[in-house]
Structure formats: structure tokens, C-alpha cells
UniProtKB/TrEMBL annotation:
<keyword id="KW-0813">Transport</keyword>
<dbReference type="GO" id="GO:0055085">
    <property type="term" value="P:transmembrane transport"/>
</dbReference>
<feature type="transmembrane region" description="Helical">
    <location>
        <begin position="297"/>
        <end position="325"/>
    </location>
</feature>
<feature type="transmembrane region" description="Helical">
    <location>
        <begin position="384"/>
        <end position="404"/>
    </location>
</feature>
<keyword id="KW-0812">Transmembrane</keyword>
<keyword id="KW-1003">Cell membrane</keyword>
<keyword id="KW-1133">Transmembrane helix</keyword>
<feature type="domain" description="ABC transmembrane type-1">
    <location>
        <begin position="346"/>
        <end position="550"/>
    </location>
</feature>
<feature type="transmembrane region" description="Helical">
    <location>
        <begin position="102"/>
        <end position="125"/>
    </location>
</feature>
<keyword id="KW-0472">Membrane</keyword>
<comment type="similarity">
    <text>Belongs to the binding-protein-dependent transport system permease family.</text>
</comment>
<feature type="transmembrane region" description="Helical">
    <location>
        <begin position="193"/>
        <end position="214"/>
    </location>
</feature>
<feature type="transmembrane region" description="Helical">
    <location>
        <begin position="20"/>
        <end position="39"/>
    </location>
</feature>
<feature type="transmembrane region" description="Helical">
    <location>
        <begin position="486"/>
        <end position="509"/>
    </location>
</feature>
<feature type="transmembrane region" description="Helical">
    <location>
        <begin position="145"/>
        <end position="164"/>
    </location>
</feature>
<dbReference type="InterPro" id="IPR035906">
    <property type="entry name" value="MetI-like_sf"/>
</dbReference>
<dbReference type="Pfam" id="PF00528">
    <property type="entry name" value="BPD_transp_1"/>
</dbReference>
Amino acid sequence: MTSLPGSARTRRRRPVDLSVAAVLAVVIACLFLTVGIPVGKLLGAALSPDGRSAILASLTIQTTPLRNTIVLGALVGTLGTAIGFLTAYAQVFLDFRGKRALHWITLLPTVSPPFATATALITLFGKRGIITFHLLGADHNIYGLQGLTIVLAMTFAPVAYLNIRGMFENMDPSHFEAAASLGASPLQTLFKVTIPMTIPALLASFLVLFVEGIADLANPLVLGGDYRVLASQIYFAVAGGGDVASAAGIALVLLVPAISVFAVQKYWAGKKTVITVTGKPTGTVKPVTARTVKYPVLLLVGVWVALVLACYTAILVGGFVKILAVDNSWTLDHYQFVYRLGADAVTKTLMMTLIATPIAALLALLIAWLVVRHLPRAGRILDFVGMLGIAVPGTVLGLGFALAYSGPTWFLGHRILPPLAGGLATGAGAVSIIMVYIARAIPTGQQACISALKQINPQVEEASTSLGASQITTLRLITLPLLRSGVVTAMTYGITKSMTMITAIIFITTPQTKVMTAQILDEVDAGHFGNAFAYCTVLIVLAIASLAINQLNRSMRTAQS
């Protein structure tokens, strides 16, 4: 038998770098605190006698909220995906003025609170709305399923737009040239070539929007009316009757379809692909000029743009008039209210966001590093657990935090943490809110860093370790600079989503730790739409500022390189 050279034996027997094990332990501990314990506590409460009764009632007797939730998710997924497809198609395949403006208008809902557009929609299309009553003279009720479908599709359509646009931009133009050479009209090419090739992106977008639609709480509270869904049932069980066990049971009913759809989406993304790039593309996609395609698409996109602009114009103007559509005299009272009574909420929201964002970005980077470089087999499990922060509906996660951290946390008979949620907790509840911000921000940064790491040749890092550098040193000096763009993107997303979040923190906000989105919801509930619009405008400006700083940073780095 031929023996291995001494150098080969040395390489095979090289001890595992303990720094990797230390990083893995830290990541597992953080995920255990931000996801594991809250979900575990929720499951424990859901499986109690009262929780089991609520589950049984939701599935057999009081089935209306479950049925309404599924219908709402399906409609939001369908309409939001259709909007995303049309806007992406217009951006990539049509030639018209204002493409950049369309891009930013499409992304506008991502930088506003989830219920800002719902409040604007009531002002525009309610029974005494500016458009329905004052312009059209109609007595229209926007509350219920139709209003929820429109506002949720508007809120989450940007996700579908970015997903589908990415697939469009990677398509090989030769597919369309071949269809044209075979005599296919532009309309036939759209339905027989373009749409079939985007089926993976369409299905992935539908599943994501379905989960977002069934998980949302703020919009059903504002615009739901008599249309009851599981998320609002959870809220009313806690806020109305204090029945936490029943709320946990209903939350489990909501959790199962959300996790199931998320798992299907992950499987589909990993297994189902359509080859749209075969070798080097033959050129750029020629704009579609056929009137049968161009003008209907632009008309539908124009309706969507008009609706978005109308809603955000109402938000902007509503903060500067006394009562929009009732008393349109100009005033600064609403902004003075925000300055006097809302400055504390603005400051604390910014502070908690700025604390949570870098921690979430660091954890996302470490998870991606472990998944791609050091855990070839267990990486999928760690990747899935890291994504639970967004896969678990915000209402469910928030209730889990309230159950888990309202009292001391015990592990193996030892008290490891004091109370973190509630007004009497450490930091008056701010710690638990920061933890929710972290849990919800990790998944996006994690996926961005995983994608970026897969594009980096491992030999770059192997060269560092072969020269004696530890894995942590290599990560800090070699990998991190190469992933800077992904980390900055993760931080930007974390800032915008944390500042506009309400569903996942509604159960753990306290009077001592005020959050802007909770203050906005209180003003909407009280009918003070002017104050709510002023709050929303301040929040949107802060979110846009963070995006502008990120864009400026990327532009400066591009210029330097």
C-alpha cells in the first residue's frame, strides 16, 4: 500500500480551528434567544388545554377567520405578483420616458409604515373620501376584503417587482429572437415565451406575498372592518380579553401554513429552475414596440402609479392641513404635535434601530460564513433557522416574545436572563424590541451575504489560512472587506424595516419605550389622521435618508475603485 506523503498526513490531521466552533456557539445562542425561546414558549402555551381548545375551535367551529386569512393571502399574492410582473416588464422590455421615476415609485411602499397607505386609502376612497364622495359622489365602503387586498398588494408588490425584474434582466435575448423568427407576434411571445420562463419567479413571488398577506396585522386593524383574519383574532384575544393561551392556539394555526409555504418556497427556489442564460448572451433585449402589448401594459402600470402617488400625496398633504377633505386650511399643528409629544418616540426608535442593525448585520454575516464555508452538511439547517425570523409571522413572533420574556428566563434550572419585555423589565422593554428588530433583519442580510460569498473564490481565503492566519483573522481582514457591499445592504434594509415595523412589536411596546409606528397606530385609532400623516412623513423621510446614504456610499466606493 502506498503511504501518503508527510505533508498530506499533516494537512489531514490539522486540528479544527476553535474560532469557528466559538462563532458557531455564539450564533446558535443568539438564534436560540431571538427565535428558539419565543417560538418554544408560544408552542407550550398553544398546547395547553385552553390553547388546544382555541386550535380546535379555529379548525372546526369558528372557521371564518381561517378561511378569510387564506382567501386574503391568495388575493394579495395574485394581485401583488401581477403588479410586480407588469412593472418589471415595463422596466425591462418597454421603451418610455420616466423609467427611473417608475422604479422609485414602485419601491416607495418599502419605506413607509405598513398601515400608512391604509390610512391614505380611507381618506381617498372611504365613505366621505376625496375621490369617491367629493369627486364621484359615490357612497363607497373601502373597509373589508377589497381594501385589505389593495393596500397589502400595494405594500408588498415591490418584493415581486425586484424578484421578477432580476429574472427578466438575466434572460437570453436569443429566446425572443427565435420566437420572432418563427413568426410569433409580440403578444404570442409574451404569453408563450416570456411568462413561461418567469414561472419560477412568479411562483416564488406569490408564495412570499401569500405569507406576508396572512401575517400582516396593522392593516386589518385599520382597514379590516368586519373582515376577521387570524392575525387580528390573536390581537383581540390578548388586548380584549387577556386570553393569552387562546391567542397562542390561534397563532399556531397561523404559524403552520406560514412555515409550510415558506418551506415550499425554499424547496422550489432550490430545485426548480428555468435556464434563461445559455452561454454568453447574444445582445441586449430589443424593446417591445407593438401597440397590442406596450399600451395595455403602460395603461395598467399607469393606474398603479396613479394610485401610489395619490396615497402618498394624501399622506404628505394631510400632515399640513387641519382635516384633509373636511377643513383644508394649512396648519403646522400636526408637526408641532409630533415635535412636542412625539420627539421621544422618534429618538428612541432611532436609537433602538441603530443598536439592532449592526448586530443583525454581523450575525447575518457570520451565519452566511458558516453556511457557505464551514458547514457543508449542517449549513442548510442553520440557514433555515436563521430565516425563521421572517418566516414566522410577525404577530406570532411578537406574542412569543411577550410570553418568553415577560418574566425571568430559565434554562436547565438556572436563571439566565431577567425580564426583558414589559414596562417593569430591564430597559423598560427596549431590549426585547431590539431583539425583535434583530430577528427580523437577519434573514435578508443572511441571504445577501450567502449570495455574495458564493461568488468569491474560496482560494482567496485559503491563501490567507495557508500563511498561518486563523479563520477569524481571515474573516476580518479578507472576507469582510469583500462582503462590505452585502453588509451595507443588510444594514440599510434593517434600518428601514425596523423603523417601519409594528406587527412584530405590538405586544411588547410599553409607555416608557415609545415607538413611532405604535404612536401612529394610536393616532389612527383615535381618528387623528393629521397627526398620523405627520408621523408617517417624518418616518418616510428618515427611511429615505438611510437609503440615500447607502446609495451615496456605494457611488463613492464605485468611483474610488
